[in-house]
Amino acid sequence: MAIRFVLCIAAALGATAAQAQKLPAPSRDVFRCEINGNVSYSDSPCLGAKKVDVEPTRGLDASSGRVQTGADVRKERFHEEFAEAFRPATGKDAKQLKVDAKRLGLPPSAQRQCRQLDEDIPTMQERERHASRDALPLVQQLLLEMRQRFIQLGC
């Protein structure tokens, strides 16, 4: 009976670990959505969403008085230093190189679409800021479709 219980727990943990490995990487894109006066924040865009600029913290220093950083932050700093060292040759910073590396596995057609969306989304965001009341719904719908396509492609 005890062995069966242990095997069930092990199987459940294995299944959970397998599912966790299939999850996509967390998004650093956050959208502020307001629907019927209710504000929510999500990694999925909504109609009329405002993109919120977020940057995760890099360790907790204040409570202990000493620097405490995890392996993920150390790895990220290493990549930033590496990118900065090669910036004269590549012309790109760490974030740009990370995007390039992520897109390397995409089919060429998806890579082209991602590059086009890199240009089109900021242009559409600017249009949204300056759109008239009559044009705003159409601009917001187009922007939503672009953002959804960006996520769908894995850009």
Task: Tell me what the structure shows.
With 155 residues, this protein is mainly alpha-helical. It contains five helices and three strands. The protein has helices spanning 2-22, 71-90, 94-103, 108-130, 136-153; strands spanning 30-35, 38-42, 50-52. Strands 2-1-3 form a three-stranded antiparallel sheet, with no helix packed on it. A hairpin with a 2-residue loop joins β1 and β2 (38-42). The longest helix has 23 residues, at 108-130.
Supply the key terms.
5 helices, 155 residues, 3-stranded antiparallel β-sheet, 3 strands, disordered N terminus
Strand content: 5-15%
Number of strands: 3
Rg, alpha carbons? 21 Å
Strand order of the biggest β-sheet: 2-1-3
Distance between the termini: 49 Å
* Secondary structural class: mainly alpha
Q: What sort of overall outline do the alpha carbons produce when their principal axes are compared?
A: globular
> What are the segments in which pLDDT stays under 50 over at least 5 consecutive residues?
1-24
* Main pleated-sheet profile: 3 strands, antiparallel
Note the total helix count.
Answer: 5
Mean pLDDT, as a whole number?
78
Secondary-structure element order, N to C: HEEEHHHH
Helix content: 55-70%
